[in-house]
Design a protein that fits this description.
Blueprint lengths: L1 H20 L2 H8 L3 H7 L3 H25 L4 H18 L1 H10 L12 H20 L8 H20 L7 H16 L2 H7 L6
Length: 200
């Protein structure tokens, strides 16, 4: 009974304060339980943090993967994948904040928990980019580097939600991200022929 409550309380505090500054006492207070009950439920803060990263990270990759798999072309896969990505992170804003705080979508490899999900996410994006290159829709290049660049673009847009600059309307935010990614990845003639958002 306590596990889910503890999970949600810990996720909220890690999002707001970060791993180092969040304390077990605060997590217990947030969950409305005693510190003794908290320690009877989990071993410690590191275990809780790893659980949040593992559970939410797995859900995140699964949802994004489903979106990508529904696309018939690279452009459709990109669109569906981005929409799934945005919908999940806006719906789980605490995980979004952790995701941004940790730089979980791109950058240097992570140690331990979360590294597998990061690698899976990059591999999914790189596969879409590779397909787009082969279909003549995207510029040629290193698919993994292009995927990392695209992930950085997505994080920059999502940071505006966490900062309160964007209202978090998921469809509008996904459209903005897709416009940026189309400009980054797509050949000009593809942008013009597909009449993609943001093409000028």
């Amino acid at each position: 009974m306590y596990r889910e409550l503890v999970f949600e309380s810990a996720e909220h505090l890690f999002a707001r304060k970060g791993f180092d500054d969040a304390t077990m006492q605060e997590i217990a207070a947030e969950a409305g339980i005693s510190l003794k009950t908290l320690y009877a439920t989990v071993e410690g803060k590191a275990e809780l943090y790893d659980e949040v990263l593992e559970v939410r990270g797995r859900q995140f990759v699964e949802e994004t993967s489903r979106g990508i798999e529904e696309g018939d072309s690279a452009l459709q896969a990109l669109s569906r994948g981005v929409r799934a990505y945005v919908h999940f992170l806006v719906a789980h804003e605490d995980f979004l904040r952790i995701h941004l705080r940790e730089g979980r979508a791109w950058g240097l490899p992570l140690d331990g928990v979360g590294e597998r999900e990061r690698e899976q996410g990059e591999a999914l994006f790189a596969a879409v980019v590779q397909a787009g290159i082969e279909q003549g829709a995207f510029y040629p290049g290193d698919p993994h580097m292009m995927a990392r660049t695209g992930m950085a673009v997505m994080q920059a847009h999502l940071a505006r939600v966490a900062e309160g600059i964007h209202d978090g309307a998921t469809d509008a935010l996904a459209d903005e991200i897709l416009t940026s990614l189309h400009r980054l990845l797509c050949r000009p003639e593809v942008l013009a022929s597909q009449d993609l958002a943001g093409a000028a």
